[in-house]
Amino acid sequence: MEEVKEGYLEQYGRIMSDEEVEQMFRSVDTDNSGFIDYTEFVVAATSQENLTSHEKLQAAFKMFDKDG
To answer: How far apart are CA 22 and CA 51, in angstroms?
Structure first.
């Protein structure tokens, strides 16, 4: 949770509450594994109208995935 909060603060300049992180996590962790894998991240970060390049998505994922 702290990784996400730190990454969000660094990227957007705003602190997320624990409740916001938990809600976001539940909506993205579609297989209920307790982790957001790359596929879940890509699905959450893209939409039909606004696709982002594969390289940008990987960079964004790595920004939040501090421990690999």
So the answer is: 25
Q: Residues 67, 4: contact at Cβ < 8 Å? A: no
Neighbours of 36 (CB within 10 A): 19
Find where tokens 């594969």 sit: 54
Digit-coded pLDDT (tens) for 12-60: 888 989 998 898 888 889 999 988 898 888 888 775 455 556 777 777 7
Instruction: Say how far residue 1 (Cα) sits from the centre of its chain.
Output: 11
Please state the domain extents for the chain: 2-64
Q: Name the more confident of 18 and 63.
A: 18
- Say which residue the tokens 């998505």 belong to: 57
